[in-house]
Design goal:
The chain is of the alpha/beta class. It is 41% helix and 10% strand. Strand 7 and strand 8 form a beta hairpin.
Length: 450
């Protein structure tokens, strides 16, 4: 079932003016995309919106209960890359089954889907919003690269028109109102342009948000966007391979590596270094109270790597013997800061005290254009303190009745404490993150989908 979006503003104006209306528009014109199917439980099958959101709310996008799948399959799906791949699949399905006419309608649809997924629990998984922003940036690039030539002389001014982000300081200063002298032609054309704009679909989008090429019919855009999505999907599939190829550049023979908890990216990175016949020792922090570090140590030891498990309280005293700290990432913020599993900040503070370099392994899909305005509360969530404290002892001990127990999922690590980010496209310092943000996302899409 393919639904055609008419060029009439009334058929799509609600989504353009309010992205949160995308679900009501789909319910009215595209019921198939909202139906939950029970025929397949395959995670890589064609995902539908309701099924995707239900699994997102239940936390089943990245992990499932042991009773449903095997341990190997559960570990594979705990990878954050799985969330990004499934988000790409749902967006590809929605784009391919909806026939839109203008790029502005496609951008509005993607923004609406991003807002819908964010409200369904995507704020806990920044990779979902990052994938939506990445695809919107691909749409913007395809539109601007294929912009129509100038109607006056029939020539194209540039292969890639200069965006407002590329303007020089001089051009922006001379564009101020006090430097612009209105002419009679401008005064005559301005009412006509305003009338035409009010009669078109452009009235629902701010003039500074999308340039005029976004409101032209582009029947060839869908194929270009699908190719960009396919390329992005292949980057996700080769993510671990590209990171592991850099293992010999960061791990050397005889070194002592310290890591915290369990991460598939870190685990594969260490195993890739061992495949290069490098002899090194890994110290794994147990990561209480879930003790994922013990599982990590067992996996590395079975692979033939010298591994040692230590208590979290022994991190500081063991740090003097460590050559390098390797940590996973939940998200990389715009200022170069790191959102990592709870307890990593303690490891980093010990490393900084002993001048031990800290290296973070992450994929570019975890690069998030958000700033840590709320400190430790940025992209964080709280768990029940029942895993940390016994409620029975608290009721017996009157001194503990007035104590508030906070059990966060993640820690925020300042960019000054990170020495290097190893990604699937290379290694970068935290000070270079701003340049990567400008390359992968458009500045107009940095804002949250709240």
């Amino acid at each position: 079932m393919v639904v055609e979006i008419q060029n009439d503003p009334s058929s799509f104006s609600g989504v353009l003016s309010d992205p949160s209306a995308v679900r009501s528009w789909l319910a009215k014109n595209h019921q198939k995309q909202l139906d939950v199917t029970n025929t397949q439980l395959n995670y890589f099958a064609k995902a539908l919106l309701d099924k995707f959101e239900i699994e997102l709310r239940l936390g089943r996008l990245s992990a499932l209960s042991k009773s449903l799948i095997s341990e190997t399959e559960r570990e594979r799906r705990m990878d954050r890359r799985t969330i990004a791949v499934r988000t790409v699949e749902i967006l590809k399905t929605m784009i391919g089954s909806t026939r839109w006419r203008t790029p502005a309608q496609l951008v509005a649809l993607l923004r609406g889907l991003g807002k819908e997924l964010h409200s369904a629990g995507g704020f806990r998984e920044p990779a979902i919003g990052n994938v939506v922003r990445r695809i919107i940036a691909a749409v913007r690039e395809e539109v601007m690269n294929g912009a129509a030539p100038d109607s006056q002389d029939g020539t194209v001014a540039s292969t890639k028109p200069r965006s407002k982000n590329d303007r020089s300081l001089e051009s922006m200063l001379w564009a101020l109102p006090q430097h612009v002298k209105p002419t009679r032609g401008m005064m005559i054309q301005q009412p006509q342009q305003r009338t035409q704009r009010s009669e078109s679909i452009n009235e629902y989008v701010e003039a500074s948000d999308l340039p005029p090429p976004f409101f032209q019919n582009r029947p060839d855009l869908k194929q270009s966007v699908m190719e960009a999505i396919t390329e992005f999907n292949s980057d996700l599939e080769d993510l671990h391979k590209n990171i592991n190829d850099q293992a010999t550049s960061h791990i050397h023979a005889g070194e002592i590596i310290l890591t915290y908890g369990r991460s598939k990216t870190v685990e594969l990175f260490l195993k890739a270094a061992a495949d290069k016949k490098l002899r090194f020792t890994v110290i794994v922090c147990e990561s209480a109270p879930n003790y994922k570090g013990s599982e990590m140590a067992k996996s590395l030891a079975d692979y033939g790597i010298d591994t040692c498990v230590i208590h979290d309280s022994a991190i500081f005293c063991m740090m003097a013997r460590v050559n390098k700290v390797i940590l996973p990432a939940h998200a990389v913020l715009a200022n170069g800061g790191l959102i990592a599993p709870s307890g990593c900040n303690m490891v980093v503070l010990g490393a900084c005290q002993n001048s031990v370099p800290v290296v973070c392994l992450t994929g570019m899909f975890k690069l998030t254009p958000l700033f840590p305005h709320d400190g430790q509360d940025t992209l964080n969530d709280l768990l029940s303190p029942s895993t940390v404290v016994n409620y029975a002892e608290r009721t017996r001990n009157l001194a503990m009745c007035d104590v508030d127990f906070v059990n966060p999922i993640h820690d925020y690590i300042r960019p000054e404490s990170i020495n290097l980010y190893v990604t699937n496209v290379g290694s970068f310092q935290p000070s270079y993150i701003y340049r990567l943000l400008a390359e992968y996302y458009h500045s107009d899409d940095w804002k949250s989908f709240e």
